[in-house]
């Protein structure tokens, strides 16, 4: 009986080892297949063509399109963006070319913008006249703009109104934004697009970093800034160059606590 029991025990151990080895092999096979599947999906995502209609169908895609308008801000609207996968093509009515210069693998063909209460479509000339009438074109492209000046703030808000209207359909807003981009001061355009991002309810709320968008033109270097101050009649010395000391012994006397 002991020999039989020992035999059965040995055979059971062999069976367990065989089952364990088989399970390990199966687990390894599953791991390899999963790794291959992940790599395959990543490859597909890397090579997947961006489709305008797909991007415009969800908040993240719409936010991506708006933010991409601000990439390479000083380049023309038809310059390649997002690793060359996005090239905005305007419709002919808004100044686009009859023959697209976009490669077959790039996005995106923008749409015409119809009038809301009458027949016809917006044109580039109509938008230019509106911008001129509102005083927006007085800010030259490539020139500095004082964001803290009340009129500048008002004009930035007005540009946002022109582009976004009364919450235009996303397609129409994108087309108008892409059209006016190359007509107006880059700083004004960037701030207007940030304003629109905050106003709209169909895009992500994450506002792009304006310093990254504007690059050196967002905050001029110190020499350029001091030269501008001297031209305005200042001494060229900034407030940040002065240290401010507080006499904490007298603070309580001047500003009593309640």
Descriptive terms for the model:
single chain, about 260 residues, mainly alpha, 10 helices
Give a description of the structure:
This protein has 258 residues and is an all-alpha fold. It is 52% helix and 3% strand. It contains 10 helices and 2 strands. It has a two-stranded parallel sheet with strand order 1-2. It is globular and about 75 Å long. Residues 38-47 and 236-258 have low confidence and may be disordered.
- Strand sequence of the main sheet, in spatial order? 1-2
Question: In whole angstroms, how far apart are the ends?
Answer: 96 Å
Shape: globular
By DSSP (H or I, 4+ residues per run), the number of helices equals 10
Layout of SSEs?
Layout: H1 2-47, H2 52-55, H3 59-69, E1 86-89, E2 107-109, H4 124-133, H5 150-164, H6 170-181, H7 186-199, H8 210-214, H9 222-231, H10 248-254
Parallel strand pairs: 1-2
Helix pairs in contact: 3-6, 5-7
Concise structural overview:
The protein has helices at residues 2-47, 52-55, 59-69, 124-133, 150-164, 170-181, 186-199, 210-214, 222-231, 248-254; strands at residues 86-89, 107-109. By secondary structure, it is mainly alpha-helical. The chain is globular, with a radius of gyration of 31 Å.
């Amino acid at each position: 009986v002991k020999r039989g029991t020992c035999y059965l025990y040995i055979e059971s151990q062999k069976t367990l080892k065989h089952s364990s080895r088989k399970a390990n092999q199966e687990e390894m096979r599953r791991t390899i297949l999963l790794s291959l599947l992940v790599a395959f999906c990543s490859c597909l995502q890397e090579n997947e063509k961006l489709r305008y209609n797909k991007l415009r169908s969800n908040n993240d895609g719409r936010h991506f399109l708006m933010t991409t308008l601000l990439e390479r801000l000083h380049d023309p609207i038809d310059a390649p963006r997002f690793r060359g996968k996005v090239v905005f093509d305007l419709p002919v009515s808004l100044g686009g070319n009859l023959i697209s210069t976009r490669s077959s693998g790039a996005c995106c063909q923008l749409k015409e913008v119809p009038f809301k209460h009458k027949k016809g479509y917006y044109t580039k000339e109509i938008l230019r006249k509106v911008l001129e009438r509102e005083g927006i074109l007085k800010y030259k492209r490539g020139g500095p703009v004082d964001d803290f000046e009340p009129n500048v703030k008002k004009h930035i808000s007005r540009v946002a109104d022109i582009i976004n209207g009364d919450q235009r359909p996303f397609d129409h807003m994108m087309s108008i934004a892409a059209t006016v981009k190359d007509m107006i001061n880059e700083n004004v355009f960037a701030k207007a697009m940030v304003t629109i991002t905050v106003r709209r309810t169909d895009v992500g709320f994450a506002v792009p970093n304006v310093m990254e968008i504007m690059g050196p033109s967002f905050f001029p270097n110190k020499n350029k800034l001091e030269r501008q101050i001297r031209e305005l009649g200042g001494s060229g010395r900034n407030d940040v160059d002065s240290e401010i000391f507080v006499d904490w012994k007298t603070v309580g006397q001047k500003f009593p606590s309640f």
